[in-house]
Amino acid sequence: MCVQMEALDRALGAFLAKLDGLGVPYVVALSADHGAMDAAERASEKGVPAQRIDPAAFVGALNRHLDTKFALGYEPLVGSDPQQLTINIAGNAPGLRARIRDEAVAWLKARKEVAQVFTAEEVAAAAPPPGKPADRLSMIERFHESYVPGRSGDIQVAFAEYVSLGLPRSPGDDVAGHGTPWGYDRRVPILFWWPGAPAEARAEPVETVDIAPTLAAIVGVPTPAVDGRCLATVAADCPAR
Predict the structure, then answer these.
(1) From 3.40.640.10, 1.20.1250.20, 1.10.3720.10, 3.30.1360.150, which CATH number describes the 40-177 domain?
(2) How many angstroms separate the CA atoms of 32 and 190, rounded?
(3) pLDDT tens for residues 34-65?
(4) I need a labelling partner for 166 at 20 to 30 A (CA). Which of 17, 24, 123, 228 fits?
(5) Domain boundaries along the sequence of the chain
(6) Is the pLDDT of residue 68 over 80?
(7) Residues 6+ apart with CB under 8 A from 200
(8) Which among 118, 137, 116 is positioned nearest to 128, based on CA atoms?
(9) 82: exposed, middle or buried (C-beta count within 10 Å: 0-12, 13-18, 19+)?
(10) What distance in Å separates the CA atoms of residue 55 and residue 52, rounded to the nearest whole number?
(11) Is pTM beyond 0.70 here?
């Protein structure tokens, strides 16, 4: 990763030097689609209470519990991501899906690796109030922001902070991941820069969808149809809302 970042830095430097040579005005906006946590082993060396779990073993243990509890003869939970589990039952036993869901939720809530558990119905109903800042969202509201009916799992699981999913066993396996609802995965820097821009760091919550409306105001084109807002701290001519 360090080698890749150094190569990217050189490439961007050459690109900006080319723009400088052309003498055209430009603005750079730099961000990321998500954050990440370092490898659990290296994070632990730095004092972070990080741990790993094996997703297949975790879901397997839950499926064995459910199979024993309900005498199913098959694994009722499917999916490779233990953060969202889908119930797949055989036959048409009345109420079985709900009983499996409730028992799975209870099992998950008793695990020390798990912080919170929600059903799909709970997540679907947890829309945050309009305009609520992203850094003030509750855990279930964070899950709602990523929920897609018909595609997201029947059970949504928030693992404890600093839990990494996956056990790298061979070269090429993932050693670090992302996708949790915790701040280290949700927070990314957003940089606006242009030649001569004053150096200033600001800590108020903004969102990546705010980039496009801000750039539109800077270059004087209509605001794109996105749910972001123009950042008046960057663009002097933000349209009235």
Answers:
(1) 3.30.1360.150
(2) 8
(3) 888 888 999 999 999 999 999 999 999 999 99
(4) 123
(5) 2-33+188-219, 40-177
(6) yes
(7) none
(8) 137
(9) buried
(10) 9
(11) yes
